[in-house]
Design a protein that fits this description.
426 residues, alpha/beta, TIM Barrel, Alpha-Beta Plaits, 8-stranded parallel β-sheet, 13 helices, binds flavin mononucleotide, binds iron/sulfur cluster
Amino acid sequence: MNEMQEKAYLPTKIAGLELHNPFCVGSGPTVKTTEMIRQIDEAGWGAAFIKLTIDPEPYINREPRYRWWAKDKLHTFTAEKRIKLDEALKICEEGKKLAKVTKIMSNITYDGPDGVEGWVRMAKAFEDAGADGNELNMCCPNMSFNVEVTGDEIKKCTGASMGRSPHLVAEVVRAVKAETNIPLFAKITPEGGNIAQVSKAAFDAGADVVSSVGNRLGVPPIPDINNPKLSSQMLQDEPSITCLSGPWLKPLALRDVYEIRKYNGSLVSVCGYGGMAKWKDYIEMTMMGADLIGMCTETMLRGFDFLHKEITQLKKYMERNNYATFKAMRDTIVPEVRTAKSLHLTEAVAIVNEPKCIGCELCMPIGHCYAIEMKEGKGWEGKNKKGIVALVDAYKCTGCSTCFDLCPTDAFRWTSVPKDRTVIPV
Ligand SMILES: Cc1cc2nc3c(=O)[nH]c(=O)nc-3n(C[C@H](O)[C@H](O)[C@H](O)COP(=O)(O)O)c2cc1C
Ligand code: SF4
Ligand code: SF4
């Protein structure tokens, strides 16, 4: 083992596979060549999923056009290249020969005339090429699903178009599982709004792991509002609905994993994708139910060698909190999640700590709050030029907490509701 691989060691077992750690490079532009697999392996990743392989021929295949909107922590693209079966099998074979720690997995879609048999054929071809597992792509929102969203008629039903249907997913999973011996991952989409139900269909049909893709389709930022018809992607003339990924996605991605875990119970295995960047993200993702953590955008931006540094931080956290394994953290938050009806709410009202108030009045215009007004006062000495400070009327404060989040100086505190307050403020 090299130094990075040693530092990245956090052994994890899933679907019978012994992984170096629970971190996977997701299928995408960073798993497209044997050289990339070499780099992924040297950096000590647990698994790598080869770029989407389509048989017979990728029916939408364009030179890539990617944008990273750093301020929004958002990645967008529509034009993308997929790979052919023979290319992918070669990457798999060569990758298997050189990889010392990383498991090599496929990511496949069949869209030819043979239906389910075609999927089985592809999966078997990867098994024969030495793949450690197969992943069915029931998730890509950027092929037929984008065609649907953009209003054109679809001739093919692949990726997210397919992954919305429990029946279609189950049919392919069942057939592939019956004919192959390596672990089977089903990577599914949240676009149909029923990711939990589709994942159940996949597990019932025999999937060993469900991966939640994380990404969504959406409209990218318009870079120049004076030329609104221009594309947001460089070297692309027209606007397009784009595939969205990266850290902005995390709250939605965590919800996907939570839903899958909650609906399917603790015995199934889940790989969570979507906006995973830093070690704290990995903890949140596993606490919401993921066994494995998948990343794509982060590897596009940072390469592969960052992993061991994040794992080092993660291990320190685990040690501090007495988690012996990564799995020990899994599902921690899942049973705690409540709906509004059964939440326990603490009664309190806001109060301003006057020596911290700079009189900026940022808390004044809050549209749903009748409780704050400005009064004369000294406030933060030297920093309060206007000689005014905020004052909260405890009889009108609902305890919503918006002022806490708006105040630049953290001047708000909580205090008890006045004992004689009988009317609940609106
Ligand atoms: C440019 C790009 C290409 C992708 N290609 C594939 C693909 O071929 N197959 C697949 O299953 N997922 C693909 N994905 C989805 C990622 O693997 C991942 O599930 C998703 O982007 C969310 O994770 P992230 O926020 O870490 O990128 C792609 C994502 C990006 C950004
Ligand atoms: S907690 Fe809400 S209601 Fe109370 S002062 Fe702040 S913004 Fe107003
Ligand atoms: S936002 Fe904070 S600093 Fe500004 S006026 Fe309100 S309490 Fe004072």
